[in-house]
Amino acid sequence: MDFTRKNRKLLSRIATNDRHGENSPYFDGWKAYDSNPFHPTQNPDGVIQMGLAENQLCFDLIKKWILENTDASICTAEGVDKFKDIAIYQDYHGLKEFREAVAKFMRRVGGNRVIFDPNRIVMSGGATGANETVMFCLADPGDAFLVPSPYYPGFARDLRWRTGLEIVPVDCKSSNNFRITRAALEEAYEKAQRSNINVKGVIIANPSNPLGTILDRETIRSLVSFINEKNIHLVCDEIYAATVFSSPRFISIAEIIQDMDCNRDLIHIVYSLSKDMGFPGFRVGIVYSFNDVVVNCARKMSSFGLVSSQTQYLLASMLSDEEFVGNFLRESSKGSSFQCSEPGWFRVCFANMDDETVEVALDRIRAFLLQGKEEDHDGPEKSKRWKKKNLHLSFSSSRLYDEIIMSPRMISPHSPILHSPLVRART
Q1: pLDDT of amino acid 300
Q2: Active-site residue, from 74, 86, 104, 152
Q3: Rounded to whole angstroms, how far apart are CA atoms 264 and 233?
Q4: 152 is catalytic
Q5: Which of 46, 264, 287, 420 satisfies CB 3.0 to 4.6 Å to 38 for a cystine?
Q6: What is the pLDDT of residues 21-73, one digit of tens each?
Q7: Which residues is 403 bridged to in the sheet?
Q8: In what order do the strands lie in the sheet with 121-125?
Q9: Does residue 217 contact residue 203 with C-beta atoms inside 8 Å?
Q10: 275 in catalytic set
Q11: pLDDT category, 406, cuts 50, 70, 90?
């Protein structure tokens, strides 16, 4: 205790506070996996990581492209002549060809319905850095952002830890598939006002993390109207934009505001290649703002978290290959810490493991859910039986897992899983 008190005097508030969220239930699972990872033969009783949204399903396509385009890397015999040009200091605006390639990719992900300006592309160290950069540009310590729940638990770190901001949850209900309603927004905003909290904006994830659902046009328009009336910002985290089924289609906020009379200075987009391309290790985050001042400020701040020039060079070549991008998007687009107002909801991720590991994980989930659920309907003389109901989970276009997992009363009739592009269910 004395050591802690001394640290608080010697070190900064950031160094000594607990707002990072590392001690939250969200990170407990990561720690358990790191200390005891599952292996089918060497550690079959180990922890299976189903809390990490990481897409490893299309690495075969990436590998094929790299082998066919060896000059895209400065660390190969074919590309080494560019080594000096890329290894020296670069403008923190980013390589021109990289920004142009990202803008083109974002346009394609959005169905070619919006043209993104490469001059508004600002780099950051992953979506984590991009979200924090936007917060630094829009708000001051003590200010708050409304966040519809359930929401990505990492927001507690990304939005709050170093910025000093607060999160005000917007309670959404399973009874309407966790729809973001105007009434819920007003209630959260008024609650903050009563507590003398200065609300600077709303941040949403579309497609949703953790729900996997997609906001419809009416909901997005309602959000834009709300923030315009309040004169606060709207930040749209669109990092899963291409990680969806063909229907319902993803609609970017950039598409919506094209035909709305609104203040575009209040609209900002966060994007990343961590999910849609499966490159979280490359730390490619993007801030795209319609506000010139925010673009300029974010670009200055990007000096603290630039994407390496080598990574920019490789990705500029890859994302400019329209045939590859088209094929990749077709193949890859076929899921208490989330602050949900209703207990009992869990997010399960499966794109970071092979089929056999998924089957082991589902067996464990089944065994856990069946514990203590036997019911004696025929008297003590007969064995107890579990009244089972088949739940069919379709994880992708190529895999169908039919698992006896839950009884009818264990699944909410309003479950968003039934409508989620990440996990489809039928009984």
Answers
A1: 92
A2: 152
A3: 9
A4: yes
A5: 46
A6: 777 666 777 788 788 888 888 998 888 777 666 677 778 888 999 999 999 99
A7: 391
A8: 121-125, 284-289, 267-272, 233-237, 199-205, 144-149, 166-171
A9: no
A10: yes
A11: very low
Contacts 24+ apart (CB under 8 A), 354-360: 355/399, 356/40, 357/38, 357/40, 357/48, 358/395, 358/399, 358/401, 359/401, 360/38, 360/40, 360/44, 360/48
Nearest-angstrom CA–CA distance, 162 and 159: 8
Helix (H) or strand (E) holding 11: none
Residue 338 binned pLDDT confidence (cut-offs 50, 70, 90): very low
Give tens-digit pLDDT for 126-179. Answer: 888 899 999 999 999 999 999 998 888 888 888 888 999 999 999 998 888 889
* Catalytic one of 143, 158, 237, 276: 237
Tell me which of 26, 253, 275, 313 is the catalytic residue: 275
**Region at 292 (left for phi over 0; alpha for psi -120 to 50; beta for the rest):** alpha
Quick check: 247 and 216 in contact, CB under 8 A?
A: no
Active site residue 14: no
Q: From the candidates 203, 239, 269, 417, give the one annotated as an active-site residue.
A: 239
Segments of 13-150 assigned E as strands: 121-125, 144-149
